[in-house]
Amino acid sequence: MSDIKKKIDEASDTPPPPPPSANDYIAAAPRISVQAFCETEASAAAVRSAGDDRRLGKAHLTVKMGGMSAAVEAYHNAPTPNVILLESGGQADLLASLDDLASVCDPGSRVIVIGSEKDDVPYRELVRRGVNDYVVGPIEPLDIVRSICSLFSASETVMVGRVIAVVGAKGGVGASTIAHNVAWAIARNLKLDSVVIDLDLAFGTAGLDYNQDPMQTIANAVFQPERPDSAFLDRLLSKCTDHLSLLAAPATLDQVYDFGANAFDAIFDTLRLTTPCIVLDVPHQWTAWTRRALEGADDILIVAEPDLANLRNAKNMLNVLKASRPNDQLPLFCLNQVGMPKRPEIDRRSFAKTLESQPVAAIPFDSRLFGTAANNGQMIAELSANHRTSQMFLDIARKLTGHGEEGRSRGSLLAPLREMFTRRPKAESA
Ligand SMILES: Nc1ncnc2c1ncn2[C@@H]1O[C@H](COP(=O)(O)OP(=O)(O)O)[C@@H](O)[C@H]1O
Ligand SMILES: [Mg+2]
Questions:
Q1: Ligand 1 neighbours by CB, cut-off 6 Å
Q2: Ligand 1 centroid – CA 344 distance (Å)
Q3: DSSP sequence for 296-360
Q4: How far apart are CA 409 and CA 202, in angstroms?
Q5: Which ligand has the shortest distance to the CA of 251?
Q6: CA dist., res. 129 & res. 139, Å (int)
Q7: Which one, of 168, 148, 18, lies nearest residue 85 by Cα?
Q8: Range 71-80, long-range pairs (CB < 8 A, 24+ positions)
Q9: What are the angstrom distances between the C-alpha of 332 and each of 156, 163, 210, 345, 396?
Q10: Of 325, 308, 242, 244, whose CA–CA distance to 279 is shortest?
Q11: Which ligand 1 atom is nearest residue 283's CA?
């Protein structure tokens, strides 16, 4: 704790950088095989590190050296994988090598070329030779993750929903309240079909907050031995608004809720196939499965009250999540219950300095507003759509989903072309 205090005192006056936006969304790749043939150790290291990214968690990736010629050699007598990554190394006869490769390569395999500034080849020649994507080096791990994943998300007819996890730096800070209000805004204002999953199985309040009393809950899914399918999960959802459904917590104490790390994986994966946006209301616990829910999410929002314990916990959570998700945008954080009468608080600037990013919002303490909403089973925006706090929830919704924000993703050079060729009708959203 003294460390944190010291950091607050020592932090320089330079303003921390703004939080990155959520636009750079990359959907996880399915269970595929990927083989890379690199020319340089730096590229090989970047590809290996991409292989550790959560979005390639299901993919099987191997890295070899030797570039194009090693690939042609290898596939003379071995079957080709789903994806071949080739580093060109700026060689003069890139097209001839691709022709050689085509003669030994299964036509179903997709090819990504890691190019060099020295390459002097028109893109249409690459496309003509069946190259699916071209990434200019020097490459970062995320370039490779994005390129591989986009090969599948662009051609897939199933939807891959985005998971947003909301968690408190301490208990009782208002994480659930914020998760529910933000999800409501995502559904109502951004018109994204959304599901809130209340993961606080023993004490969760999502049912109360949305004024729902469902018979079926997430316990029906997590305690059943078979893998849940979409139809089964659909029956557990209760509809709150046009675009918002709830997978409620049982909030009963007749059993205990200890789970292994992977207990919820199948539920999340199945829901992602039909739901564009899944908001996880994660209880303030540090267990194998809460940690995994956070680490596996596309975006994370940490909610903190402005005091020292919250600051320390938020810093620790950020550090752990940063380390385990090196290629993801950093977790966002917001302050809640700011300006509680008579309470000494750590100000927003000190939070921003210590956490090295700005909060996405600082929501004022307002016991009447929040108390009324909670007791009525209503959202803040239902009580007062134009209230400053309702606007803050909408703003957080935009920042988390990337909807209504400036685009900033750095696509590969062939991405627009590929989109033209591979565009297919989108799956109907459920
Ligand atoms: N900004 C706020 N001002 C006043 N009360 C709030 C505010 N945010 C949340 N609350 C109240 O704080 C309590 C705890 O909220 P909850 O969302 O259950 O916290 P958590 O999920 O972090 O444990 C609830 O009674 C809620 O209505
Ligand atoms: Mg909660």
A1: 168, 171-177, 205, 336-337, 363, 365-367, 370, 374
A2: 18
A3: T-SEEEEEE-SSHHHHHHHHHHHHHHHHH-TTSPPPEEEEEEET-TT-----HHHHHHHHTS--S
A4: 40
A5: 2
A6: 22
A7: 148
A8: 71/35, 71/37, 71/101, 72/97, 72/100, 72/101, 72/104, 74/35, 74/37, 75/101, 75/104, 75/105, 76/104, 79/106, 80/35, 80/104, 80/105, 80/106, 80/109
A9: 29, 14, 25, 20, 10
A10: 244
A11: 21
**Cα distance between residue 188 and residue 172, in whole Å:** 26
Residue 112, token pair as written in the block:
């990504």
Strand partners, 280: 165, 197
Can you tell me whether residue 221 is helix, strand or coil? helix
The alpha carbon of 288 and the centre of ligand 2 are apart by a number of angstroms equal to 18
Copy the structure tokens of residue 369.
């507003």
Query: Given this model, what pLDDT does residue 19 score?
Result: 40
Number of other CB atoms surrounding residue 113 within 10 Å: 27
Residue 72: CB partners within 8 Å, gap ≥ 6? 97, 100, 101, 104
Q: How far apart are the first and last CA of the chain?
A: 47
- Residue 340, CA distances (Å) to 346, 363, 405 in order: 12, 11, 31
Q: Which two tokens stand for residue 426?
A: 């989108």
28 in helix, strand or coil? coil
Residue 129: both structure tokens together: 């030779």
Average pLDDT on 179-201 reads 96
Task: Give the angle subtended at the CA of 234 by the CAs of 229 and 240, to the nearest 5°.
Answer: 155
pLDDT-based confidence at residue 378 (cuts at 50, 70, 90): very high
Q: Which amino acid is at 25?
A: Y
Whole-model pTM? 0.79
pLDDT tens, position by position, 339-350: 999 999 999 999
Please report the pLDDT score of residue 429 as a whole number: 36
Ligand 1 pocket, mutate which of 181, 182, 310, 370 (most atoms under 8 A from CB)? 370
**Phi-psi group of 201: left, alpha or beta (phi > 0 → left; psi -120 to 50 → alpha; rest → beta):** alpha
Q: Is 276 helix (H, G, I), strand (E, B) or coil?
A: coil
Beta-bridged to residue 134, according to DSSP, are: 113
Q: What's the gap in Å between 251 CA and the centre of ligand 2?
A: 12
Is the pLDDT assigned to residue 417 strictly greater than 60? no
